[in-house]
Sequence to fold (574 residues):
Amino acid sequence: MNVFLNNYFPNVMTKVPEFYESIGQTFQMVIWSGVISLILGTVIGIVLVITRKGGLVENQIVFQILDKIVNLFRSIPFIILLTGVMPLTRIIMGTAIGVEGAIVPLVFGTVPFFSRQIESALSQVPAGLVEAAESMGNTKLQIITNVYLKESIPQISRAVSITAISLIGLTAMAGVVGAGGLGDFAVRYGHDRNQTDVTLATIIVLVILVSIIQLVGNFVAKKSSH
Amino acid sequence: MIEIKNVNKTFQSGDRVVTAAQNVNLTIEDGEVFGIIGYSGAGKSTLVRCINMLERPTSGQVLVDGIDLTELRPAELRTARKKIGMIFQQFNLFDSRTVAANVAYPLKHTGMSKQEKDQRVKELLELVEIADKANAYPSQLSGGQKQRVAIARALASNPKILLCDEATSALDPQTTDSILKLLKSLNKKLQLTIILITHEMQVVKEICDRVAVMENGKVVESGDVFSIFASPKKAITKDFINNTSNLSKIYELIKEGAEITKIKAGQCIVKFNYLVKSYSEALVSGISRQFHIDVNIIFGNIELIDQQPLGGLVSILSGKAEDIEAALDYLKAKNVGVEVILDERISQ
Fold:
């Protein structure tokens, strides 16, 4: 095994600890910003669905403002967002570099995307179900949790896997603020020093990661659709 | 008792104001099956939604057992809604939940123990005769089965009123019939007040005690089903009734010149309509004997509504003109509706 690795991944084998560290950094970024984005995105997605015209708590002002903010952040290229939100990152995290410094821009880059996914997932819940729940004397909160969220678990789990995969893509750019991660590792060695085996190793790890996320997402979606 | 008083409902659609309900007044007694019939867009769906405030009336009152629902606070309204069940054309079951979980849904947050809930769900599923499907998912059920589950769910919180929004419109005729029979039996067994809206007179005829006919947001005619069928006053009501009977086909047949309508000199085609209840006299053989005329029944449509025969016969009468005339007068005196459709009598 070692002979094989030394033969085909000579450059990776000389920096195994750094490779592991990069994987760890990618994980840290994906998990932290993923969890935060999941929560914020779900909340914003729900608010978008219930405040729109004909929604549960129709409110044109809230809807229009939120809708425009989401569009605004979706339009900003991530590489610009990464440095653009630095002052804010410094206020929230105390630093604008490293893994901590990358989490805020990653959240800003992911939340709008995930919000739209949630909005679209919840929009597929037939209006009749909401009406039926209302006729049974449900509160609005009960309708959100028992109808909107519960009935769209398959769509939500697909949205989560798509978002997680796109988040992994974004972390590749986080090297700009010194957050490291697999993308940064591949750029610094694989690209800059032309060590193609580093690039290849990085890709293999990412393919495995993406496949696992996709499999889990599909599994949950399948298990929860009837 | 449900009292709908001066209810108006308007919608703003762009620059246009659409009136869905206009000055509607209805009183629905406890234990009654009340039908609201109208074409789509007549405002009947909106009106039925005004009863449980899914649509808030623009003005007017909706009183259920004397309590004005339009004035309740949100929490009070939610409590009131639990006593008003509702079923829908599209069933609106929760696809992510099993049949049993759907029926148990209204029992959430009621403080019932798991055991009590299971027991209640079992009773309800037996009531609607679908206990064997408890662990199935809605997607595995047929339309009729789905509606049974929806009925069980609507009854879970022991409502006194059941609103049916086109509950049988997505079902085939046999299934419609079985759902209507179920509703009727629930009405009897549970003293359940049922308000159902439909565009099919067949449904009204089948189970309703009283009916209101809606057109353009207004109730144009209402009364007990028999008298509405026996003597409809408005054109729209007549339309609905004609759709359920084949008596009006005679006009088409004559227009098309069908063989059956080609009568000889001395004959006439007459349509008889039963208008009053408890008709037990031997009409046809009676006039035949008494006035020496022949009565050839081409076709007829006599149905039982409220256990009373209602309908009519289309017949060819042949005989002397004055005998036929006397026979028709005799029938009119007996309160039978007489309409001479085609007349080839020879007057002397």
Chain B touches chain A through 28 residues (CB under 8 Å).
